[in-house]
Amino acid sequence: MSVKENLIDLLESIDKEIDLAGRKKDEVKLLAVTKTVDINRIKDIKEFGLHEIGENKVQEIEEKYDALKDDFEFHMIGSLQKNKINKLLGKIKLIHSLDSLSLIEALDKRLASNNMELDGLLQVNISKEESKSGFYKDEVEEVLEKMQKYKNLHILGFMTMAPFTEDEAVVRSTFRGLYELKEKMASKKFDNVNLKYLSMGMTHDYKIAIQEGSNILRIGSKIFGERNY
Ligand SMILES: *Cc1c(COP(=O)(O)O)cnc(C)c1O
Questions:
Q1: What confidence category does residue 180 fall into, taking pLDDT thresholds of 50, 70 and 90?
Q2: Cα dihedral sign for 68, 65, 1, 7?
Q3: pLDDT grade, residue 15 (50/70/90)?
Q4: Which of 78, 110, 121, 175 matches a 20 to 30 Å C-alpha distance to 88?
Q5: Cβ-contact 157, 147 below 8 angstroms
């Protein structure tokens, strides 16, 4: 199937799921994950009104940036090494993968010295899998409290990845855990924090994510086909 056929299917399926969940269409954003996808195939999604793309490597953003920057805004969704911060600054709209205090500190410092600002999401390891990065749920409040020290990096929500499993209940409880964390933290006041985004749901679990309150779906292979790394 072509990218266009895939997208027609996907957009229809997302709309249907939003309806079933009793939510509003403009509440849920689709972020097309374009890692390993070449520039011409990415451009095919423009006519569907998709103008935000997610990449997980700084180098790939650098390679694609000039060709795509007029039509698309980039999101960083993969783990960021501190020594690559400089190469990323000015190129992205949102970083979904703030997964350590030392990264937050380094990023804010670099932003401040360049007189720039950036929005980001805390990556939360709800399922506590060793293989996943991110803060544990019970660390998040302390991180949000520390955000008052930083002036150039702003926290707009949370991101998580569910375990890769056919067990729907496990996936659902991961997403529900992130939603509940957001509700709880949003009832408190933190400087430099405005919790509005929940980035959760990928090709295999986006329907559950919609049901559980996601408002940014990060979907790659259902649009562009299986990746061959
Ligand atoms: C690759 C990736 C996705 C998209 O995964 P698909 O299963 O292809 O939809 C979403 N989020 C992150 C962080 C990714 O690295």
A1: very high
A2: negative
A3: very high
A4: 175
A5: no
Under DSSP, is residue 188 helix (H, G, I), strand (E, B) or coil?
Answer: coil
Ligand 1 atom closest to the Cα of residue 78 is 13
What average pLDDT is seen over the chain? 97
Going from the Cα of 154 to the center of ligand 1, the distance in angstroms, rounded, reads: 23
Give the residues surrounding ligand 1 with Cβ less than 6 Å away: 33, 35, 56, 77-78, 202-203, 218-222
- Please state the length of the chain: 229
Q: In the beta sheet, which residues pair with residue 120?
A: 95, 155
Residue 89's nearest CA partner among 114, 67, 106 is 114
Neighbours of 39 (CB within 10 A): 12
Section 208-224 average pLDDT? 98
Average pLDDT over residues 130-155: 96
Distance, in Å, from the CA atom of 166 to the CA atom of 171, rounded to the nearest integer, reads: 8
Residue 89: burial class (beta carbons within 10 Å; 0-12, 13-18, 19+): middle
